[in-house]
Amino acid sequence: MAFAFDPANWAIVPTRTFAELKIGEIFRTPSRTVTSAHAAAFQAVSCDNHPIHYDEEYARRAGHSAPVVHGLQVLAFTAPGSTLLPHVFGPVFIAFTEVSVKFHEEVHAGDTLYPALEILALKPLDGRGEVETSVTVHDQHARLVLSGTHKYLLRR
């Protein structure tokens, strides 16, 4: 019997409804070593030309051991699409509605980052549901470099 391919049914993981999600579920991203090329690309995209991000001597004079990776670039590593979370949401996903973070430690080129999202809360709304996740990024020394929350809106 021939397999009938349907692109609408192409899924990486089984999708789930809002009611099937569980508080405490963790969605990890692959680890990533930040390179100077990443930092340069982010600098070009963000138009943030502060020398703290690319000038080694300036960074040292300012008390840093090396140029500091942009905080927003570290935040970008928590993008839900870098995990399986949006694939789990599937077609019930409506929007990424909120983000809040705190930066705890500097990140430099050569650091390896380990981002994760954990479901903290599931709030039913009128015909919709809000998913709140904690977001964390640790480095290769097990230091917490970023923490915060994301919120997403789903159909119920």
Commentary on this structure:
Strand 5 and strand 6 form a beta hairpin. Strands 1, 2, 3, 4, 5 and 6 form a six-stranded antiparallel beta sheet that branches. The model has no long low-confidence stretch (mean pLDDT 95). The protein has 156 residues and is an alpha+beta fold. The longest helix has 11 residues, at 36-46. The protein has helices at 36-46, 56-61, 71-76, 85-89, and strands spanning 26-28, 32-33, 93-103, 112-125, 128-139, 144-155. It has a domain at 15-34 and 71-155: Hotdog Thioesterase (Thiol Ester Dehydrase, Chain A), CATH 3.10.129.10. Residues 23-138 form the MaoC-like domain. This is MaoC family dehydratase. InterPro entries: HotDog_dom_sf, MaoC-like_dom, MCH/BMMD.
Concise structural overview:
Helices cover 18% and strands 35% of the residues.
Biggest sheet descriptor? 6 strands, antiparallel
CATH topology of the domain at 15-34 and 71-155: Thiol Ester Dehydrase, Chain A
Low-confidence stretches: none
Radius of gyration: 19 Å
- Any idea what the CATH superfamily of the domain at 15-34 and 71-155 is called? Hotdog Thioesterase
Question: Distance N terminus to C terminus?
Answer: 36 Å
Tell me the structural class.
alpha+beta
Give helix and strand order, one letter per element, not per position: EEHHHHEEEE
In percent, how helical is the residue content? Answer: 10-25%
Shape: elongated
Beta-strand content estimate: 25-35%
Number of strands: 6
Look at the structure and give the CATH class of the domain at 15-34 and 71-155: Alpha Beta
CATH architectural category of the domain at 15-34 and 71-155? Roll
Q: Count every helix, treating DSSP H or I runs of 4 or more residues as helices.
A: 4
What is the typical, i.e. mean, pLDDT? 95
